[in-house]
Structures are given as structure tokens and as C-alpha cells.
Design goal:
heterodimer, A: 294 residues, alpha/beta, B: 372 residues, 2 domains, four-stranded antiparallel β-sheet, 12 helices
């Protein structure tokens, strides 16, 4: 857990050089896309005319609204599309409201990218099963695109998506394209509305008889992002199917303030989420899962 | 540079302080102010709390005059070196917004004056090492702490009289210092006034000792220093190895004792403020009234506040018991996972300054022994 993180900036030892990941960089908002009633994607480019930095799937930017504060947000654009970065944001308070309300042409600040990514570079083939709950699909979008790009590396690719209602589904117009490019996409909602003809239930219900039989669970790698209880219930079903916890990864969300492992806010038991996450291996945190108010 | 211990009397101590001041150091040391021993500017050894002893118990602190005329009899007060290296408030950056909406960012570049701290206790030297690891040892560093650390000169002093809340030996430290100082003193009280045995820990400390009037320490003086250290260690009753016991706290997260402690704890955060290793900070953005400039400030935060674990739906740690559990388990147990060592040095400040007298020695011992 104390291994070196992916982003290794220059150490400030002289007192005169600045750690670039501690310095915010202004970005212009060039486009906005309304994903749902309360989720918006901002597309941003650096104001200095340079390119945004390269990143790995699930890495986080500290995105700031002038005078309000910063929010830790996974980059939701594709890793090979570096003309811009995208952040998919839900209205959850003053900072996210200010970011979403930034007009096109307006300026935000970004520090990063920070944190451990989905381990797609380290997988030894087999099947790849991805679970996204609600806004949890945003930190998964880059790895879904990366898995599609390397589709032949995996025997099977599943993207299992859930949301409270159909109107809470994000990136909904992309699902068909993902399916066409070789991912089995399945979608479920807790509560239907008038134009929903798909299944109703919780995400673990997508592990129906057919899916359970089709996927080779012994070779499966699983990536999950969503609320803690959703990740816990999906993981419980998977371990029941014989998936080792060391083959399951979560993205953790906690109160990340500095992104630099210096402010102490984003601890989860032994984990400092901004340093040791946001992607964590379930085997590393298993004893702490499900403990109230940890 | 002197490699072997020296000895000197208070007059040479005054010369040492004067030389540090001449070299541009701000010199601070323990002083009796508002009925507590706190770090404050120090001109001569006469400014030290001569003949003052302390009584410390869970939730209790008082100073008393004694008939001993010692300079360093009182143990640690509420302040530690942390207050001077990791200040309670510091600027991170200023951002200015121009008429066309463009943002220009100016990072704060700290350039502090050199600081010499006299009378740093062995527990606080260990605390400094722990803060170094957190704030300078990872992939990113806190620039304010790092700048303050570089300009620091330390004259440490071994403890002859631990307080009633000291437990450094149960955490594997003290009561004598082994490293982390420029100069280390042991006070030898005497009818004619105290003498000091002095050891240099760095070249800078050795040069300073060469510049003042000292003698080679005698075998008798060294023997007396060793006796005082042994007596101080004996004063701290270490029934439980709290360093070892503390590592097991993370195995007891479901214990009912957390809720029970939560009923006593006021979540006042005194423990985290007085703790010499607690490092958590909040980042606060404020804007000018015309909204053309914004400043980010780093201020001490505490895991006992509701906002500390804030998330979209509300705080992760709503109950006080869960906040106490976070603090104690982090300090004694998960700090090992995060930084490879314990986060506690056994200074006892959290016990003394807890208004309801919660004693971590007792809580760590009983929770780590409990059945869950």
C-alpha cells in the first residue's frame, strides 16, 4: 500500500521549485453536456494553449471554481483523446454547483491527475466485468473505452449498469455503440418510468442465470464503481461465484481535499484514498468493508 | 567539533542563546505564561520557569513553585514544536481574476527566518520525525512545513521529571533523546545551581558548543545523568506495551466501547490540537468583497468535527464515537499501515488537555484486550 503512486512529481527539496501537482492550472470550459437532470459533463482545455496532461483511467483531477473550492473528480474522457479533458459532475453542493454553472468560455482550475488507476495494463487476459452504479459510470468511462480498444486482449467484456431510474442513467446514448464494439452491455433500474422496457431491480440482479453461466468467473477481473453498499453487495455475489477478492477492484470516494496525502481527510481505515486509491483492490480493504461510519 | 559530552553552567547557556540570536535565529523556549508552560521568546536562562513544577493528570494541569531551583523541571505543556513548523494557519495561494475572467495564480513561497527552539523534549523529537515522514516523506510535501523545518535549530533537554500523563516509555521512546537534536542537554540540579551535560548531535551544534565556555563532562557527571534518566523511566509506570497493543485496535472496530467513549467525549478537538503529530488540515477559499481575488488558506482541522468526513449525503462519521474511533485507531494502529510506524509518541498531552479526562493509556489497553 506504500508503493509509489502513478503520478511522481519532482520533490520540493530546494525550497524554490514548486511541485507542479500542487499548483492549479486554469482551464477554459469549451462545451457542456447535460447528462441527466442533475449531472453535467464539462469539456475543458488549458487556457495556456497547451494540451491537458496524459492520464490513466479513473485518475482524478482536483477541479476548482474560483473562490468556492475544489472537488475531486475522475476524468471521464478517453485516455487517447488528449485535445481536452472531460469531467462528469453531479450537483451535490456549492462547489459542484459552481462548476456546473461555469459558462462556456468561463474558467475553472485543475490540479492533477492524481491517484491509482484501474489496473487494465496489468491484467492477464481472461474476462473483464465492469459494474457501474449511477454516477459511478463516470470513473469507468475511460477504462470501458480502453477495454474496447484492446478488446482482443479479453475473452469476454461485460458492462453492467444500474441506476435509480432511467433518467439517472449517464452516457445512455453510448451503450449501443459499446455493445456493437464487443461489450455485452446490460442495464437495470431500481424504478421504471413510462418509456422503460428493460429489467427492474438492483445491479446484482444483472448476474442472472444466463450471465452467470456465460462468464468464465475463474479468469474474471472485475471493476466496480458506485455507492459503497452497491460495491459491497456486488462483491458479495461475485465471491459467491468463486471470484477471488484479489481480482476485484473498487473506486473509493471519500472527502478528498488536497489530493496530495497531506490533509488527512480521505482516510478509509489503512487507506489514504488520494494516495492509495481511488482504485483499490478489494483484498486490501476487505476487513473494513461494511463497518458503519468508518 | 566536540565528539564527547561537555558540561557548562547557566552563564554559558546565556552565551549560547546570545550567539544564536547574533546568528539571526529567533530563539524560543519554555516559559510560564498564563499558568502554562508554552514556547515563547527566550533571552536568557533566567526567562526559563526556574523552580516551577507541573502536576498533570487526566483533564488536569497546574503549575507549582518548588524548592528546587531547576530550569527544566516542568514537563511538556500544551504547545509543541508543531505549532512553529506546521502553523495553525498558512497561505497556500492567491488567485486574481481579471476583467476578462482570466485567472492568474500566485503560489505562496514561504521564506521564514531561522528558528532556534530550546528545551525540546525527547517525545517531541520523535514527533518531529513522524511529521517529517507525513509532510515531507511522501510523493508530495507541505512547502510551509518543509521551509520551517530547514531553518530549525534544536537544543533538546532530557526529562528528569515526567508528568503524571507521560507515557513515552510505553511507546518505545524516551525519557532520553537519541537523535534529532543539534544539542542535547541533561540538567544536573545542585545547591550551587544547575549544571548541564551537553552533547552535540550535528556539526552546527558542535560548533556552537565550541564557541561557548564549557568543560569536558566528568565521569561523575555522566553517571549522574544516567541515574536521572533511569529514575525518570521508573516514574512512568508502563504496565502495558502500548506500542504493541495499539497495533491491534484496527481488529476491534466493531467494539461497543467506541459508542461508550463517544458518550464521554465532547468532540472538542483539544486532543488533536495539542497532539504533536496530528497533521490534518482544512483548505479554505475566501474571496475579496469585489470577488476579484481569492486566497486559499491551510488551517488545522480535526477528525472530531462533523465536516471532516463530509461527503455529498452528509458526514461519513456522524457519531462522536466513530470520530473517536477514527482518531485513536489512526494514531495507534492504521498509522503503521500508512507511514510504517505508530502515530503516538507518548507525550500525554491528549490526556492532560482532554476536558473530560479520557485517558488513551486506559482506552488502548482495554480495547486491544477486548473480545471482539
Amino acid at each position: 500500500m506504500n508503493a509509489a503512486p502513478i503520478a511522481q512529481p519532482g520533490r520540493d527539496t530546494s525550497g524554490t521549485t514548486l511541485d507542479s501537482l500542487l499548483v492549479p492550472r486554469p482551464y477554459h470550459v469549451i462545451a457542456k453536456r447535460l447528462e441527466t437532470h442533475d449531472v453535467t459533463t464539462l469539456h475543458v482545455v488549458p487556457c495556456d494553449g497547451g494540451r491537458p496532461p496524459s492520464f490513466k483511467p479513473a485518475q482524478v483531477g482536483m477541479v476548482g471554481a474560483f473562490g468556492v473550492g475544489e472537488a475531486a473528480l475522475s476524468i471521464s474522457s478517453e485516455v487517447h483523446q488528449l485535445s481536452q479533458h472531460s469531467y462528469t459532475i453531479r450537483r451535490a453542493g456549492p462547489i459542484t454547483n459552481a462548476l456546473i454553472d461555469t459558462p462556456i468560455g468561463g474558467t475553472v482550475t485543475v490540479r492533477g491527475p492524481f491517484g491509482r488507476p484501474w489496473p487494465i495494463d496489468d491484467l492477464d487476459g481472461g474476462s473483464l466485468v465492469i459494474f457501474g452504479g449511477g454516477l459511478g459510470l463516470a470513473p469507468l468511462r475511460a477504462v470501458i473505452h480502453e477495454a474496447l480498444r484492446r478488446r482482443s486482449d479479453f475473452t469476454d467484456l461485460r458492462v453492467l449498469i444500474g441506476a435509480r431510474t432511467p433518467r439517472d442513467l449517464i452516457f445512455r446514448d453510448e451503450y449501443a455503440a459499446w455493445d456493437e464494439r464487443g461489450a455485452h452491455v446490460a442495464v437495470i433500474v431500481d424504478n421504471r418510468d413510462d418509456d422503460w422496457a428493460g429489467p427492474i431491480g438492483m445491479i446484482p440482479d444483472l448476474l442472472d442465470d444466463q450471465t452467470r453461466a456465460e462468464v468464465d468467473w475463474v479468469t474474471a477481473h472485475v471493476m466496480i464503481c458506485g455507492p459503497d453498499p452497491m460495491m459491497a453487495s456486488v462483491s458479495k455475489r461475485l465471491t459467491g461465484l468463486g471470484v477471488e477478492t484479489s481480482r476485484i477492484w473498487w473506486t473509493m470516494e471519500r472527502n478528498m481535499q488536497c489530493g496530495n496525502a497531506l490533509c488527512g481527510h480521505c482516510q478509509f481505515g489503512p487507506i489514504i484514498v488520494c494516495r492509495d486509491g481511488p482504485v483499490v483492490n478489494l483484498a486490501d480493504i476487505e476487513p473494513y468493508v461494511g463497518i458503519e461510519e468508518l | 567539533m566536540y565528539r564527547s559530552p561537555r558540561s557548562f553552567a547557566a552563564a554559558s547557556g546565556n552565551a549560547m542563546l546570545a550567539l544564536l540570536a547574533e546568528q539571526g535565529f529567533e530563539v524560543i523556549g519554555p516559559r510560564r505564561i498564563d499558568e502554562a508552560i508554552v514556547y515563547a521568546p527566550l533571552g536568557t536562562f533566567d526567562d526559563l520557569p526556574i523552580g516551577v513544577t507541573d502536576r498533570q493528570m487526566p483533564g488536569r494541569y497546574s503549575l507549582h513553585d518548588s524548592d528546587r531551583r531547576s530550569y527544566f523541571d516542568a514537563a511538556v505543556g500544551p504547545h509543541s514544536v508543531k505549532h512553529h513548523l506546521h502553523p495553525s494557519s498558512s497561505t497556500v495561494w492567491d488567485i486574481t481574476r481579471s476583467d476578462d475572467g482570466a485567472l492568474s495564480i500566485e503560489m505562496h513561497r514561504p521564506e521564514p527566518a531561522p528558528l532556534a527552539v530550546i528545551g525540546v523534549r525527547p517525545c517531541d523529537l520523535v514527533a518531529l520525525e513522524k511529521q517529517d515522514r507525513v509532510l515531507m516523506g511522501g510523493p508530495h510535501i507541505n512547502p510551509v512545513y518543509a521551509a520551517n523545518r530547514r531553518r530549525l535549530f534544536i537544543v533538546a533537554v532530557n526529562c528528569n521529571h515526567p508528568s503524571g500523563t507521560c507515557f513515552c516509555t510505553a511507546m518505545g521512546n524516551g525519557p532520553t533523546a537519541v537523535r534529532g537534536f543539534d544539542i542535547l542537554l541533561t540538567e544536573l540540579p545542585g545547591d550551587e545551581g544547575s549544571e548541564f551535560v551537553a552533547t552535540a548531535g550535528t556539526d552546527a551544534g558542535g560548533r556552537l558548543l565550541e564557541s561557548i565556555d564549557t568543560d569536558a563532562a566528568t565521569p561523575e557527571q555522566l553517571e549522574r545523568a544516567a541515574e536521572l534518566a533511569a529514575a525518570a523511566a521508573d516514574e512512568m509506570r508502563a504496565e502495558v506495551d502500548l506500542l504493541e497493543a495499539g497495533t491491534h485496535l484496527k481488529e476491534h472496530l466493531d467494539s461497543e466501547m467506541w459508542a461508550e467513549i463517544g458518550e464521554r467525549c465532547l468532540a472538542c478537538a483539544n486532543c488533536t490540537m495539542s497532539c504533536p503529530t496530528c497533521f490534518c488540515t482544512d483548505l479554505i477559499d475566501t474571496t475579496s468583497i469585489a470577488s476579484v481575488s481569492s486566497r486559499r488558506t491551510r488551517v488545522w482541522d480535526s477528525c472530531f468535527t462533523g465536516s471532516f468526513s463530509h461527503m455529498g449525503p452528509g458526514p461519513v462519521r456522524g457519531s462522536i464515537g466513530s470520530r473517536y474511533r477514527q482518531w485513536l485507531v489512526h494514531k495507534f494502529s492504521t498509522w503503521h499501515d500508512q507511514f510504517g510506524e505508530s502515530g503516538c509518541v507518548g507525550c500525554g498531552r491528549c490526556i492532560t488537555w482532554c476536558p473530560v479526562g479520557i485517558d488513551v493509556r486506559r482506552e488502548v489497553a482495554r480495547i486491544s484486550r477486548s473480545g471482539t
